[in-house]
Write a structure and sequence with these properties.
It contains 1 helix and 15 strands; from the N terminus they run ββββββββαβββββββ. The chain is mainly β. β5 (72-73) and β6 (78-82) form a beta hairpin. The termini are far apart.
């Protein structure tokens, strides 16, 4: 059933002191906090006195999304920056046969971008990180502020994670402040970013 909440029709969800850093929908609604993930289920979203039947359940404890703009969904699983690295979370068990979550920033052999992510987390510049899922290539594109690079105070580096092969690639001079994908049914699946330095909009992955 369709329903809505207004400013004067609200209910408290999780009085644990943590901010909500993101929301998404894969089968159910998922609510992200820095160190946990909750699931919201309902047929009627409303006050209990008005027939609302929503229920909340904490489905993950120990990690969550710490940087709101890094949270993306491809419809099957979420990808986001957590306090221990870039992580994927599959709420319905389609990611692998046995795992519902895994780190993709560090491989089992220690390779990957773990050193970069550690530097971003420890410096606090993770707050400027953001990402986009580019379905045409099956890429997670992660832009962030590296404290060792310039300019400071804004995203100054970009990495691409290719889900097809499970590898990261650095991209030179992609100083992306924001991303957008034209992915409506009549669009060409083009992707653009707004430059954090010069303010221009740039197309990438253009066919010649």
């Amino acid at each position: 059933n369709m329903s809505s909440m207004t400013l004067f029709r609200w209910f408290e969800t999780f009085p644990d002191g943590e901010e909500i850093t993101g929301m998404g929908e894969i089968d159910n609604v998922h609510i992200f906090k820095p160190s946990s993930i909750f699931q919201l289920e309902f047929d009627i979203l409303n006050l209990g006195s008005q027939g609302g039947d929503q229920s909340f359940a904490k489905v993950v404890q120990g990690f969550g999304c710490i940087s709101p703009r890094t949270l993306v969904s491809n419809g099957k699983f979420y990808t986001f920056l957590s306090k221990d690295g870039v992580r994927v979370y599959d709420p319905v068990g389609r990611l692998t046969a046995s795992d519902e979550t895994k780190l993709i920033s560090t491989n089992s052999d220690g390779s990957g971008i773990g050193t970069i992510i550690k530097r971003v987390l420890e410096s606090g510049t993770f707050k400027n990180a953001h990402a986009v899922y580019y379905a045409k290539r099956n890429w997670y594109i992660f832009s962030y502020e590296d404290p060792l690079k310039y300019p400071h105070g804004k995203p100054n580096a970009t990495l691409i994670y290719d889900f097809n092969i499970g590898e990261w690639f650095p991209m030179s001079n992609w100083l992306a402040e924001s991303w957008a994908v034209f992915d409506n049914i009549d669009d060409k699946q083009e992707i653009v970013y707004g430059d954090s330095n010069d303010g221009y909009v740039y197309y990438i992955d253009q066919e010649t």
